[in-house]
Amino acid sequence: ERIVLLTADAYAVLEAWLRVRPTTDDQQVFLNRRGQPLTANGLQWVLHQYGQQVDLDLTPHQLRHTFARQLTEAGMPITSLSKLLGHTQITTTQIYTAGADPALAQAYQTAMSHLVEMTPPPSAPPPAPPPVVPTPSEPAALASPAELAETPSLPKWDTWATHLPAAIRQASWAYVQRHWPTWAAPRRAHRAQSVLNDLGHLWDWFLARRPLTQPGELNLKDLWAYQSDQQAQSYAAGTINRRLDYVLGILRERADHDEPVDNSVFRLRALPRPVSLPRHLTEEESQRLEAFLRARLTCDEPKTRLENACLFVLLHSGLRKGECVDLRFQDLDVVGKRLIVRQGKGQRDRLVYLSDLARQAIHIYLQGTARRPTDLVWLHPNGKPMSDSWLKDHVAAVGQAAGIEHLYPHRLRHTCATRLLNAGMDITRIQKLLGHEQISTTMIYARVQDATVEADYRQALNRIERQQMPLSSQPITVANWPTQVVKVQEPLDNSV
Fold first, then answer.
1. In angstroms, rounded to a whole number, what is the distance separating the alpha carbons of residues 482 and 460?
2. N or C, where is the chain less crowded by C-beta within 10 Å?
3. What number is the average pLDDT over the span 15-33?
4. Quick check: 315 and 289 in contact, CB under 8 A?
5. What is the pLDDT confidence band of residue 242, given thresholds at 50, 70 and 90?
6. CB distance 417 to 318 below 8 Å
7. Which of 221, 245, 241 is nearest to 231 (CA)?
8. pLDDT category, 363, cuts 50, 70, 90?
9. What residues act catalytically?
10. Burial, 85: exposed, middle or buried (Cβ in 10 Å; 0-12, 13-18, 19+)?
11. What's the half-sphere exposure (Cβ side, CA atoms, 13 Å) at 278?
């Protein structure tokens, strides 16, 4: 049992209903039109009818999730919210709040405001965005939802690596089938084909070295030899490690099924990845790119509007290329300046925030369009979805036009992380914004600039010179703390 609280509005509506509620022997508060207790199915039907009137697919549980999100964004502690919802585990409440984090949102907007202050004002201010997002309605000449949401199928089994031994080929195919459900739906076919291509390359190399008929015949020396050969051919350590991870995954699955496997292979150590050079744009390049995009905001050409919106989202929100391409209209909240990334890397959902410029560019791009909630956000004028290759090519073309060489989507992600860090945003919050499981990964993306180090150093040294103690050593002032010494009566027994 638990206590649920009511707002003044909810109480007024409930009180008005109780005044006209038919008198019955039923204890349930809510009755249907026949005077009988309202059932769960009846409530779902009522909400469905209301939803149709406003073009929404409403369910009671959806309103429960919305309730949790709104309270979290209003600053309610998750512990209190968990009790209000009746959850025994706080992790369940975190699922309901869908990544809502007021502190993270505030930190992001504060950092972005610092970046805006650093950016020189454009010669002509861009137009103000429209007050509302286009209302979803019947689209004209757009691709059908079936075309956009079509589930990709597995690559053709009949044509893949038919020259491989049957047991090796079957084990590789079974590995892909088992991992198929864990990959993001829009990219499953591409990911499956990529894994099969890598496995085909690996098995061809091993078979050229010595004959094999079963996956379990591989040993540690085979894997070492592959590492050495691929390094000699200047393949990146990450590429070599990824390919060998696929083979080790197959061998682990074989071992789990009690099939003979040389256990020495599991002692293989991944190649150390070299510390990568910074990929982010310099602050001067970032400001130049922003100025170039701002100057094009008033352009009426649909392709330019699409490019502007995509680049501002990539530059200011740090989305991965695939996350940007797969964004759905129902996950975009332009008014609230945020979007939801569904099934990002590691099958994790996360909340991402939008800057004012990104919001404005999206507003301009969406002007005069009609979308269904399940439609992709980025569509060409003919209604066809944007592809990864199109985004990559057009990001590079915009970079060339702005005088920036070798611009690609992932470089914008690095730039977003670095700029937020040097604008004062905490690294753990940047980690959450980018969706990294390990903070060490975020440190690869976000590089501390010399100016930031100098500013932090001088601020700390200034405190030392003024003999200021660290904040953690200062007592917290309490308004009602007792200020008089209270004499405690001595115990009768001196031995106590």
1. 34
2. N
3. 91
4. yes
5. very high
6. yes
7. 241
8. very high
9. 320, 345, 410, 413, 436, 445
10. middle
11. 13
